[in-house]
Amino acid sequence: MENRIEQKMQALTERGEKAFITYMTAGLPDMEGCKALVKAQENAGIDVLELGIPFSDPVADGPIIQNASYKAIQLGVNLEKVFALMKEIRAEGVEMPIIFMMYYNTALHMGLDKFVEECIGSGVDGLIIPDLPLEEQDDLKEALAREGAPVLIQLVSPVSAGRIPQILEGARGFAYCVSGMGVTGRSGSFHREILRYLTEVKKVSKIPVMMGFGIEQAKDVAPMKEVIDGAIVGSYFIRLLEANGYKAQAAQEYCRTFKKELNGLK
Amino acid sequence: MKASEKYFGEFGGQFVSESLMNALGELDRAYEEAIHDEAFLREKDYYMKQYVGRETPLYFAENLSREYGTKIYLKREDLNHTGAHKINNVIGQILLAKRMGKKKVIAETGAGQHGVATATGAALFDMECTVYMGEEDMRRQELNVFRMEMLGAKVECVKSGSRTLKDATNEAIRTWSQTVEDTFYVIGSVVGPFPYPKMVKEFQSVISRESKKQILDAEGRLPDVVMACVGGGSNSIGMFADFLDDLSVKLIGVEAAGLGIETGKHASAMALGKPGTLHGMRSYLLQDGDGNIQIAHSISAGLDYPGVGPEHAYLRDSGRAEYVSITDTEAMEALQELCRLEGIIPAIESAHAVAYAKKQAKKMKENEIMVICLSGRGDKDVHTVIEYQKQQRR
Lengths: 266, 394
Hints:
Distance between the termini of chain B: 59 Å
Structural class of chain A: alpha/beta
CATH topology of chain A: TIM Barrel
CATH superfamily of chain A: Aldolase class I
Shape of chain B: globular
Distance between the termini of chain A: 34 Å
Strand order of the largest sheet of chain B: 3-4-14-9-10-13
Helix content of chain B: 40-55%
Strand content of chain A: 5-15%
Oligomer: heterodimer
Shape of chain A: globular
Order of helices and strands of chain B: EEHHEHEHEHEHHEHEHHEHEHEEHEHHEH
Largest sheet of chain A: 9 strands, parallel
CATH architecture of chain A: Alpha-Beta Barrel
Number of strands of chain A: 9
Strand content of chain B: 15-25%
CATH class of chain A: Alpha Beta
Largest interface: A-B, 45 and 38 residues
Radius of gyration of chain A: 17 Å
Order of helices and strands of chain A: HEHEHHEHHEHEEHEHEEHH
Largest sheet of chain B: 6 strands, mixed
Structural class of chain B: alpha/beta
């Protein structure tokens, strides 16, 4: 199995370690700055990076990522430029798994076959598409049925209930469990039945289970530490980057601390 | 459920977050049950008659017919309670919400007509109502903002993106995905994820059911042309529905050309649009070179939407309906013409259909028949008309 996400997940499982995944909007503060941030995070030991592809109508995102997305569009960031950035990142030796978090129309507009080819050519390992539920994935899965293509990460929600086994059947990489209802970046609003729901997913899942949405510090996931295999931080990380002028050092410190605390949770 | 049921040809579907999938399934089941339940239909018909004021007249516009040179009938949806066709759909959806035990409703609105209709229905059935409206539209349609507030609804000002209907819809979808466990989302047009396009069509198809019967009574035959304006496309789908199988009836949808298609400042998703996904559906959309959704432009807030309902996309591609467009200027001229000739002040949205009627009539004979859906009245637009006239004088 060649996929970087799957290799990483296997290595973490063998070491009994939890994964730490961050999200950042591609192209912020600019292309060079973004590259520096990617490298800083790899050095700090994050396990997987999600790169957000800006879109005009990000309905799964709260205000923080909406604004970041808007800013990136104003700077001229688009899918083509992010593919170019990816090629540079890989050429400069970044080896960690990278996932595109994007809306379906962006890929559709490029044409699915061309999109997948670009993913393969630039070293994209996974896709998270929040407006593409299981029932609408056939076209994309067909385009992804190629050697070296990224894996499509499946999202699970607290109200997925009976859909969970279906969603996870054949799922690859990891299961992305959304912590609450609605959009990204709502801190302290995990679903009231979060633990029961995560346990349900864990029972069915053959792949690691990650939790995302609304997480700020490692201690936020302490109550779920027995169930989840890792945590994803997006909006809070972007807020932190903005507060620190997108300095690589601030990103590095935060990631190092989170990763350490996540694996030392009592 | 087979995927094909959720599609009109290649258009439609359910491009929403996982958290809404069970809710959409539940909504579809509840809807199918309701429309096959005599008691539900009786209750709906009761409110349609006694509260909304249906049926609405199919008025033979004698002066307009003489002026344009063909027989023109106006389906008077402007005479409905709250002033437009929007209430037909709202009563249906709110009764469904009530049946599903929901106490809270949310809605998006552009011109404010759907917002007012939803606020009205919520007041009638004692539900908590929040309406999402773009900041730009709140300015253009201030009167409707006051009306919603008088009716007890909370109007949430949406300041993201273009600050119009597109962004109000984004915000309503975001809110719904957070509150789906106890809230019903009343979508105002034949857009959004399945089953909304199907459901809204059914609730609006009363327009063509009545029209067909009325025209047969008046003329003893089917019309040659049936026409309506298209934003998201709810009054037009309602106007087309019962004529879809009557292939002798030409169906024409009129989109907003804004300042002109060639200027790029327009709202004609089907003139130059490319299929894509937005607001839970695959349909024709105005997009830029990166697949970002473009800002639509129309003097009429109700047509100011960069997409179109999936069934319209299908009717266009299959050739069953024809879609054309009318500029701001043409619509405003038609609005004034209808005021003077017939004593009817139409909504600017509906004036787009009247404007195209003038062009279409030139291709028709004197004894041929055209039915136009006059989807709403123009009271809400008086402010826009005054501004427009001031600009013309400069």
